[in-house]
Write a structure and sequence with these properties.
Elements: H1 5-13, H2 22-34, H3 41-55, H4 67-99
Length: 111
């Protein structure tokens, strides 16, 4: 059974709420680049680098030579990166709400 990277990405992220947060991700990166949103460089860089790696046709373990294992390295990377990225986006949304003077009573960000 042959899988495309796009199908694998869709499958890996469809149940994580990642798609709904894409506009928030772009807003977070934009505010971070302006210097308004302060966070560690690696908190944004590593997840973005991982997503670029999965989308990129260049792989450490190519799907063409080793079909099953080549796909598994991408899936493993996605399962590690997406929860970390969503946690960072949730922290950004909390920061943004506090910045906009929203009434936040009790919030917990869980992994």
């Amino acid at each position: 059974m042959k899988y495309s990277k796009i199908d694998l990405i869709k499958e890996a992220i469809k149940n994580k709420g990642f798609i709904k947060k894409i506009p928030d991700i772009f807003r977070m990166i934009k505010l971070w680049m302006k210097g308004e949103y302060k966070t560690k460089f690696m908190s944004l860089f590593l997840p973005l680098l991982g997503i670029v790696y999965v989308i990129s046709p260049i792989d450490l373990i190519p799907e063409i030579t080793i079909p099953v294992i080549g796909v598994l390295d991408d899936l493993a990377l996605l399962t590690f990166i997406i929860p970390k990225f969503i946690k960072e986006v949730d922290q950004f949304l909390l920061w943004e709400a506090q910045r906009n003077n929203a009434n936040i009573i009790d919030v917990e960000i869980v992994e």
